[in-house]
Amino acid sequence: MEIRADDDCRLWTATAGDGDPLVLCHGGPGMWDYFDDLAGILRATARVVRWDQRGCGRSQRDGPYSVTRSIADLDAVRDQLAGPRTALLGHSWGAHLALRYAIEHPERVSHLIYVSGTGIDPERAWHPHYERNLRLRLGTHLDRWKALGDRDRTPAEEREWATLQWSADFADDSKALSHAARMATPWLGINYDCNRAINAEVKQELRTNDLAARCRTLDVPVLIVHGTEDIRPQWAVDSLHEALPHAERVTLTGAGHLPWVEARDAFSRAVATFLAGTTPGR
């Protein structure tokens, strides 16, 4: 179903399951909701609310694209589909969005689940490690990925390039391409204007806003989840974990950037335990 943001932009949404609400925030920026499997896992635990962010996937391609606008859109989703207070689960860029929303509106957030995020360090020291690990993980696909990345691409080539890049986000080489192809089906097209605008703003925000100080005042329980095989280093979130007064951390062995895919049972247990209000096992 569609809802309308406060500026009348149409946002695609879907809900499944029963129980207390849990709003999912996908990564990108510029991508679309890829949480079919995750919603299936969590629907026994919560009433799962999914959405395509502004300009992405099935939502209206209408800016502006900014962190502030994304927070306002998330608030519209929360207000219309989740109620006065909800749990949030954000993945990758969506983890940052969910964190920023909780900082702005802590009274509207019951729990925050921060999955495969990259922390709040202004220098983004994790990024060179990510670039190196990406190339190592691509292995025999590296030359094709580089060749596609260096030229204008047809829609079919764009999907191929993205599938190759996303395959590096999975630890199991034998299944990585099929997992990535599933994310790319249906192919809804990456919004690069959205990607560039929000990434630039996040970099500036990390340099100029003291997010660590704001995190220290966040009176919301937080669960930080990371896979041991994510090509983004786990230490990138150390300072965030230290700044949050009510944070637990779970590291899932053998899982990459989408840990619910490669550590399904452990991920599901950690989330269900956290939402139930007890300490997740490590």
From TrEMBL:
InterPro entries in the cross-refs: AB_hydrolase_1, AB_hydrolase_fold, AB_hydrolase_sf, Peptidase_S33
Swiss-Prot/TrEMBL keywords: Hydrolase
The organism's place on the tree of life at top rank: Bacteria
Limits of the AB hydrolase-1 domain: 21-259
Family the entry assigns: Belongs to the peptidase S33 family.
Protein name (record): Proline iminopeptidase
Organism for this UniProt entry: Phytohabitans aurantiacus
Gene: pip_1
